[in-house]
Design brief:
The chain has 9 helices and 9 strands. By secondary structure, the protein is of the alpha/beta class. β1, α2 and β2 form a beta-alpha-beta unit.
Length: 274
């Protein structure tokens, strides 16, 4: 029986679409899906990086991969992306709705709540909420046409479930600049949770499962002040490593989670348990 349980995690013969695929976490997610046998559509803004990383996946894991440039906030771009994936692979069984925006204008993105511009707010929401909806809508419709269900995983954040502690950010720097957690980020990630639960409840009768992957803080170049203060708030006493998110994704993408939908799988080292 144990070999049958192991096989539940197998993704061979399934096509997985990953948005935000060439980011720090996105690349690890693509690698995890490919290692378990999925054909992977590498979806992000930059066509050259998508194509290059897709080639790398094929070389490293021997599974088919396709790079597709897509602006998730543009309905026409999303429709074109799904069309390209279906033309290449024939169908889609897994969507990892992972794309999110942190503005190129970091001063605007990290501005205080009192001084946050509506233009910046809308720019972030266009990707983090509108884009999440558009991709789920378009891929979900494709899954329904196929008539065999599917698994949609949407990346939220622990800050979509609980508030950040502003004391962590005093003297905290990332990539050489002072950082904070802006309200737009928490609000957009809370919206992802709400969208996930709505879609799970409304698409359950089609066999489509919709769940949220909820990461805690992942170590990615923050300064020691931030890492030590954040870690002090975590029962496991440290920040996450990027690879520690991959197992949760594979579980939600695979038949191992066949009776799981509308769920927030929190991978936060216990931060939200206090």
């Amino acid at each position: 029986m144990s070999s049958q349980y192991k096989n539940l995690f197998e993704l061979k013969g399934k096509t997985a679409v990953v948005t935000g695929a060439v980011g720090i976490l996105g690349q690890r997610f693509c690698r995890g899906l490919a290692e378990f046998g999925a054909q992977v559509a590498v979806v992000d803004l930059e066509p050259d990086r998508c194509a290059s990383f897709a080639e790398q996946l094929q070389c490293d894991y021997g599974t088919a991969a396709l790079g597709v440039a897509c602006d998730v906030a543009d309905p026409a771009s999303v429709a074109n992306m799904v069309e390209q994936v279906v033309n290449c692979f024939g169908s889609i069984q897994v969507l990892h709705n992972n794309a999110a925006s942190k503005s190129a204008d970091l001063d605007a993105f990290f501005a205080s709540t009192e001084n946050y511009s509506l233009a910046e707010w809308r720019k972030i929401m266009a990707v983090n909420v509108d884009g999440m909806f558009l991709v789920a809508q378009t891929v979900g419709s494709q899954m329904q046409r196929q008539g065999k269900g599917g698994s949609i995983i949407q990346t939220a954040s622990i800050y979509g479930l609980v508030s950040s502690d502003k004391r962590i950010y005093e003297g905290s720097f990332y990539l050489g600049r002072q950082i904070s957690n802006p309200a737009v980020y928490s609000t957009s990630k809370a919206a992802v949770v709400g969208l996930t639960r709505f879609l799970a409840a409304n698409w359950g009768d089609t066999g489509i499962r919709v769940n949220a992957l909820v990461p805690g803080g992942v170590e990615s170049g923050q300064n020691e002040t931030f890492k030590s203060r954040y870690s002090a708030r975590v029962p496991l006493g440290r920040m996450a490593q990027a690879d520690e998110m991959v197992g949760a994704l594979v579980y939600l993408a695979s038949d191992a989670s066949s009776y799981v939908t509308g769920h927030c799988l929190v991978v936060d080292g216990g931060l939200s348990a206090w």
